[in-house]
Amino acid sequence: MASTHVLVDGYNAYHYTRNGKKGDGVTIFVSEGIPSKCLPVESDDQLENPWIEAEGKEEECRGFRAYLEWYVEAMTRVGEELLRLTAEAAGIDPDWFRPIFAADGGDRSGGGDRSAGGDRSGGGSISVLRLLRYPRRDEPACPAAVDGDYVLQCSEHTDSGFLTLLSTFHYGGLQIGREGEGWLDVPPRPDALVANIGDMLGRFSGGRFKATVHRVVDCGEDRYSVPFFFDPSWDAPVSCRMPFGNPHLSARQSAEGGLTYGHWLLGKILQFAEFKDILTDKKEKNTEEDQ
Ligand SMILES: O=C(O)CCC(=O)C(=O)O
Ligand SMILES: [Fe+2]
Fold this sequence. Notes:
The chain has 291 residues and is an alpha+beta fold.
């Protein structure tokens, strides 16, 4: 892909659906992201330079871009460090996860020196930063978007990748689901990140780490949050298992089957309302091409 950061969609108004998520007003910012072959564009040129450029506000726009690029780098470093610590705690090579974020998706033989946040031009990590706004909702967007006294803004789900690093500023509204304990509020802590475990870390660890079930409820005011989804490369095998206590088994050796993260992810996110329109057509085309 020509640019490393692609703004897929400036501002979307989506409505809560039973299987979908999110209220109105979602800005999606993709770092490297979904390969263009999966998006409804004819060529990569259509994805070039989609950064906001407002006449008379050139400096602010440049600053906005520079800040977000810096933020993506910083979150990538935090994600890498957390996975290194996870590997160390599991008694495996601290860099064990590294090739899964590289362009070849887990093949150590050609991995070179690409880290999760290093050379991202070659199809490495498809981490995503999203800037979210949930307008205050006194009434649910649809009858299904309530739970007792709560108005739901984003339905119960787990995130797909390894880790989600989330800034929620001073806003409440995020809840995590714990078996036997129901929904627990995550108190907002300015200057702190919430780290949620995603499906991949859950799978890779054979369930020793559990993907965090969470949802967002209306907090009585417009709410902003910024999740960074720390995701492996499109080609990473999803059937990899961390060889707890065996520092010599590489990611590739411990993969059992052929399903890649990208294809697994497409299958999952097509359940969400906001992706249905932008991905469905292309997905069908891809499946044909891939066969
Ligand atoms: O807005 C939040 O605090 C959480 C957002 C979320 O769970 C998601 O985008 O997957
Ligand atoms: Fe989430």
